[in-house]
């Protein structure tokens, strides 16, 4: 990850230009720049406080990478981030236990209502894009792609064997795995593929367990965030997906996720409590830092960054919360 830009760099440049216009020597400019750098470093060390977040396991790797760099610059700010899943994170957010909530889906209407009832105002920020990846066991030599209808057969419980999915597949029992209802990934898949129907599969709150289950079962199939596949691609086989409006199946890649041609592409979010942004200086700085560095963190975590303008717009939105 790149070195993070110090807040005072613009000030340093402005001071150097002012001294040059007044006929000041380069040495004076450098001295002033050095003092300003020390001032910025001192301000970083002076910032103290506590920040609490929770939510999506899919978004967590991005926040973890950002937090590592943030802590190096602001060692006296404690940022704790739980991974209760998108739904679990919103429960804590609604209860007033956290300053921010990570989510791998849009906030639901009932969650909006609960926040309204709790008199909690919030702001939504997009951090990156993800391609929910469907994967089968590495030894599976017959599934190269699946349509939405075929996915629906599997995860509605209609298909018991692979032959029930497609006539030329073997008559072997399907072992389907999925996240549980605490995850935004569950909600996203349910809405996109099953028309909000219940997923019939062996469910688990731990995404790593789902990955391992597919790896350990020859007839296994599961779905999870793109980065979980990236980290385990030597032991899994990604399945191309043909969406309802597509003539050909599409593989999940950085390009197809970014342009939306992959049918299971989705944005990743962080929801920030406005009161905390106004009254907790440490949290406001953490959010600014997160937005400024999400592109690199997303890419290093195996996700797809937004456009530069999207992050600029997010910073403007953040500054508008007064």
UniProtKB/TrEMBL annotation:
Protein's cellular compartments: Cell membrane
One Pfam short name: PBP_like_2
InterPro entries for this protein: PBP_domain, Phos-bd, Phosphate_ABC_transporter
Keyword Transport set for record: yes
GO BP term, example: phosphate ion transport
Compositionally biased region (Basic and acidic residues): 27-53
PROSITE patterns documented for this protein: PROKAR_LIPOPROTEIN (PS51257)
GO molecular function: phosphate ion binding
Chain spans, region Disordered: 25-58
Cellular component GO terms held in the UniProt record: plasma membrane
Keywords: Cell membrane, Lipoprotein, Membrane, Palmitate, Phosphate transport, Signal, Transport
Membrane topology: Lipid-anchor
Keyword Transferase: no
Domain PBP: from-to ranges: 42-292
UniProt similarity note: Belongs to the PstS family.
NCBIfam families: ptsS_2 (TIGR02136)
Complex and partners: The complex is composed of two ATP-binding proteins (PstB), two transmembrane proteins (PstC and PstA) and a solute-binding protein (PstS).
Function: Involved in the system for phosphate transport across the cytoplasmic membrane.
PANTHER family assigned: PERIPLASMIC PHOSPHATE BINDING COMPONENT OF PHOSPHATE ABC TRANSPORTER, PHOSPHATE-BINDING PROTEIN PSTS
Record-given protein name: Phosphate-binding protein
